[in-house]
Amino acid sequence: MRVLIQNRPDAFDISGGDTVQMLKTAQYLKKLGVDVDISLELTPDLSEYDIVHLMNITRVTFTYTQLKNAKKQRKKVVLSPIYWNTREVILSYILQTTSCIRDIHSLKELGGVCLRSIANRTFLAQAEELFFSKKMALTVLANVDCILPNSRAELEILKQDFPDVFKKGEVKAIIVPNGVDEEIFSKSSPEPFIRRYGISDFILNVGRFSFRKNQLSLIRALKGTGLTVVFIGGSTESADYYAIKDTIDKLYYQQCKKEADASFKFLGSMPHEKLASAYAACKVFVLPSLYETPGLSALEAALAGANICITAEGATREYFSNFAFYCNPHSIKSIRKAVLEAYDAPKNDKLKWHILKNFTWKHTAEATLKTYEKVLDENF
Fold first, then answer.
1. Does a structural domain hold residue 139?
2. Residue whose C-alpha is closest to residue 142's, from 163, 120, 156
């Protein structure tokens, strides 16, 4: 079996969860003996492939073109939508913008980026993409051979947002959960991180700063507790296409640092091999996002042995079950209570073994391969 996995053209330049899912799915499919290639092209020659696996309908303009190309060449196509309701994303950035423009300097910075984006047409391109995205996403969902959501929650959101696709029962969907890298995180040692930074048993948050990730609420919730809180990650500096979004994230990051006191440590970005030690050194890993599907960093931290405090919004309960501490991301009081309960609880391996049993990339690859085999079966 020869498989081509396709994603947005900038998936390597601007890495995200879809990039990790693409790379790890391919890596572990190869371990199962599948011949897999990755392509970020829009219209590649598919003559050597049996099936095309598309990733991501968030940037659906690219996915739409890749689907048309695959169907033109009469190929079977499966889709990992990696989707959540876009209205929530848009609302989060509106709220973020109003909360972070606190002075004339930040207003001028954002205004200048908006003007440049209008001048170089990236603003118009994004507006056009946003306006037509639902129509294109509906076309993609209706024409792939199988949809691979990573949770029941994602499938339900798809059914709510695209009822016409699902009402006739013609579109087939098989849930393929996200995974975590057992080899990197399950045997990680806290010692390298402790030697480098001199801290242990702290609260840890990992990820790009943005309103959706909700770090500012975490700072407000834990300020005055005396607990050491470590942030790994920063704001993204990327291509012109994302200039407005990145500037909003940058202003949010600056507001987070402004409100933090000395108990909050900002360490910037960190490679995966060093992250593993940070996960092992912390007492609690917290992800109070507006939603997560399910939060790969939380899976990684759990595999390294950390207690997990995570948003109750999204697909988190499907992955973390009763082994995590859940918070309402819209409530400072709820975040504080959940983090403190997680901090006071002793560490144990129940969540770690739950993840090893159900949510490694090996499990993801096995479920993906079974789906490929079903789709290629003439009776599917």
1. yes
2. 163
